Amino acid sequence: MPTYNIWVLGENDVTLSGGGQLDGVTQGDGSHLVGRTLTLDSTNWSPISVNDGDTSFADNDTGQQLNGAQTVNGVSYGNGSIVEAEYSFDVSDGTNTYTLIAFNVRDSSPSYATVEGIAFIGDPGDWPPVGVPLTVVSAQEGPSYAADDYVEPVCFAAGTLIQTPDGPRPAEQIRPGHRVTTINGRKATVRWVGQRRYRIHDHNRPIRFHAGAIGNTRDLIVSPQHRILVSDWRVMLLFGLGGALIAAQDFVNGTNVVHEDVDFITYVHLLFDRHEIILSEDVPTESLYPGPCALNNLAPDARAELLAVFPEMQSHNHVVPTVAPTLKRHEARLLMTA
After folding, report:
1. Residue among 137, 75, 133 nearest 104 (CA)
2. Best CA proximity match to 85, nearest among 57, 63, 125, 51
3. Would you tell me how many other CB atoms lie within 10 Å of the CB of residue 62?
4. Are the CB atoms for 8 and 2 separated by under 8 Å?
5. What tens digit of pLDDT does each residue of 196-242 get?
6. Euclidean distance between CA atoms 296 and 290, whole angstroms
């Protein structure tokens, strides 16, 4: 039976205009939200471990059950509790549109009467901005998205050596204010660091690049969606690009790039003023990409702390692009076989 994580932000960390609620009051289709604004109040999204008969997290699927007792939105639920994607809805910040999923623990009558939080559809780290009113432009009943389509963080395993102007330093020893060397030799200042211990399941097993697999001097371990910059003749020949980002999981070949067989891992997130390519174990890898606005994507307390130390960040209210295009899985597979 597949096991995967769905990253959920609890309803208590969301504000709806007009005192609205996420609960499925209109047959669980989300139409009651259209026209309202929704604001994410924090970045407290947490992984919810799900056992499933397939690899899609959907509506009306009683085979989706909690993998062990877990807490959702501050409430504890027992092992085997049924969970589902009650409805989906699209929100806009005026420039970007995001697809969100109403996460429901099926413990009420009718089953759609409660929604405990929201999950997110998109690329790794592509969370909507925090603290920004997002207008709900549409809603749909009966969503069914592959578990791989849900947003999850990109991160380094603790112990990974990150290149700095003072030499390599383990990721977990890097602090806000430290400087890290980028691929083009710049000294980028770290603005925020996150560290957390995760339970690992089949869906989100870390990827181990054995020494030498992609020019790394030691083994490199990253999350499955963490993207690596590839800049060689294949990228130019096949896609006309000087470089492209490829998710770590798309490098897996069963020999020198493999899924790591562990139960727990400590991950470290590094955030800069912009999306950066830094050197981890001598490999060009991406920093945390938090979406359109790095500052607004931080929790209010973290944002206040950053502004106290780095007031110049107040003016960083612009769209943050990825540093290079990202190849889709089928494109990455084509490149790997070239």
Report:
1. 75
2. 57
3. 11
4. no
5. 777 676 666 899 999 999 999 999 999 888 889 999 888 888 888 88
6. 9
Nearest to 109 by CA among 11, 22, 23: 23
The answer, yes or no, to whether the previous bond of 165 is cis (omega within 30 of 0) is no
Q: How far apart are CA 72 and CA 45, in angstroms?
A: 10
**Count of C-beta atoms within a 10 Å radius of residue 157:** 23
The 10s digit of each residue's pLDDT in 96-120 is 899 999 999 998 777 777 899 999 9
* Residues present in the chain in total: 338
Cβ atoms of 335 and 235 within 8 Å: the answer is yes
Is 53 strand, coil or helix? coil
Q: Is the pTM above the cut of 0.90?
A: no
Query: How many other C-beta atoms are found inside a 10 Å radius of the C-beta of residue 270?
Result: 25
Q: Which H, E and C letters describe 204-241, residue by residue?
A: HCCEEECCCCCCCCCCEEECCCCEEEECCHHHHHHHCC
* Centroid of chain to Cα 257: 22
Alpha-carbon separation of residue 42 from 16, 303, 313 (angstroms): 14, 10, 18
If we measure between CA atoms, which residue out of 67, 72, 79 comes closest to residue 46? 72
CATH match of 156-337 with 2.170.16.10: yes
Beta carbons of 229 and 335 less than 8 angstroms apart: no
What is the residue type of 107? D
Listed in order, the ranges of the chain carrying CATH 2.170.16.10 are 156-337
